Amino acid sequence: MTPEPQPTLTTSRTQPAVVVHHQDPAVPTQKSAGHVIVDSLVAHGVERTYVVPGESFLDVLDGLHSSDIETIVCRHEGGAAYMAEADGKMQQRPGVAMVTRGPGAANAHVGLHTAWQDSTPMLLFVGLIPFAHRDREAFQEFDIKSWFDTGAKRVMVLDHPERASEIVAEAMFAAMSGRPGPVVVGLPEDVIRQQISPVLHPAIPVAAGGMSSSDAAALKAALAESSKPLFVTGGNDWTQDAAHRLTAWLEQHHIPAAAEWRTQGTVSFDSPSYVGPIGYGRPRPTYDLLEETDLLVFVGTVPGDVITDGFVCRQDWSKKNFLVTVDPSLRGRSGPVSRQILAKPEAFVRDLEGISPPVKEEWTDWTARMRAEQESFGALPPARPAPGRARMDTLMANLVPRLPEDAMVTFGAGEHTNWAHRYFPTRRYASMISARNGSMGYSVPSAIAASLAEPGRRVVTIAGDGEFLMNGQELATAAQYGATPLVVVMDNQEYGTIRTHQERHYPQRVSGTQLKNPDFALMAKAFGGFGITVTEDQDVPAALEAALAAIDSDGVFALIHLVVEQRVKAY
Q1: Angle, CA of 63, 17 and 190, to the nearest 5°
Q2: Is 59:35 a contact under the CB 8 Å cutoff?
Q3: Phi, psi of 555, deg, nearest 5
Q4: Which one of 60, 134, 367, 559 is separated from 334 by 20 to 30 angstroms, measured CA to CA?
Q5: Taking a C-beta distance cutoff of 8 angstroms, is the pair 531, 479 a contact?
Q6: 523 touches 529 (CB < 8 A)
Q7: How far apart are CA 571 and CA 567, in angstroms?
Q8: What is the DSSP letter of 343?
Q9: Domain 31-196 in CATH: superfamily?
Q10: Hey, which residues does 232 pair with through a beta bridge?
Q11: pLDDT, tens digit, for every residue of 136-184?
Q12: How far apart are CA 51 and CA 14, in angstroms?
């Protein structure tokens, strides 16, 4: 059979695609709406979609069968949504998940909330009951707009089959324009089977904004008056080129930069301008930074409650805060606003390079002081094991020197993430993929998405025992599609973060936080990967060596079950 010619399209998050249609007698005059949806996703540059199948969108699944899109079949809709969300963080277009109606949509909601709070471009396609059955309490019927309208940028339903390609283009545009975020598209199963014209809707251009002449003049004047400027990078709307160029500009002018919580790597971990992360569990010096700086420039994000310690830090309106975001609503902002610059990071950095203030001695001293404190905080602990139980310090001290320059880390939520924040060498944009809404169960799905998107890179995920079992079954997905992350499970037999809060507010009254765990290494082996359990610190280096060897030689994922010291369980 002669393959059908595909539309030619080039795409980026800031430079939308242009579709060129070719007339060919071999092209069918009609296609199902479901197949046209798939063609439109291909034309927009989608490389893979994460699905849990359902009878409600069989026609789309049929369209995926012969398409260039890789279909990743997942074991739970929450895992599929997390993978799509992580994919949206890494790519220059939205990640895509597909689930079925009712229970499937409910299970996927956790990934949608992550994308909303993390400002991640993402499309969630949800199969729906037939149009003719609507409002009759049909099997798995639900109101998609009522469910998702407050947690998505747009919720659209394909009620007219001829608009199939248009809705994909609109959904892509909505997910990427302004502050990025999730978009939900409902697909009634009878509508997507109807035959329509295969002509595709052009991609809709996404505005990147930029500094106006008055913006540039204001920023230049603020820099001239400042003795302690600080840039803070964040968000998921960067390119590696923009990250590299901003780093070069900061280093040239001896200006420091911190990273928003769980977005480290935009300014390299090794840069003399990088002074640490800002967020929960941050070192004291970066907390003081926000109050000490006389000019704060946020790029790609805004100072929210995590950065400002619950709307407490940096609230004085006499302080100078420049917020660089293309979102005119400044949703999530905390504290003063001296000026908003409506620009995506790439456009802002392009215009920033036209500003070249003279380097001040105060800037050099200020940056050097904060950089020294960051280097001290991020210095690795001793690699030599200590007597007793396995320790995360020992694992990180032995892991980091073995990492290549482009290694990336993913994780969900919990105290186990502190080791990644502190020690993992993030050297480029999107080398730290995490859930800034504190969502548990994110570690394994995000690691799988990262490994599939970047098969040549070393991907490490750090999971707690509590969050691991929320989506640990997705290791079956890793084995099925050849994802090869290193999974570290820190096992302290409790929900550690909640236990810490409990001890602070209800001392000596442990309740509802304790766990009894299985052998996670055996679980990894059962799924077809490498697994090893470590209980003694002296065995950590050898276990790590064996796990990395299994990834490199056998092409499988590897899991280290690290049983660390437990706190007293009862009083």
Answers
A1: 30
A2: yes
A3: 65, 35
A4: 367
A5: no
A6: no
A7: 11
A8: B
A9: Thiamin diphosphate (ThDP)-binding fold, Pyr/PP domains (3.40.50.970)
A10: 258, 298
A11: 887 778 899 999 999 999 999 999 999 999 999 999 999 999 999 999 9
A12: 27
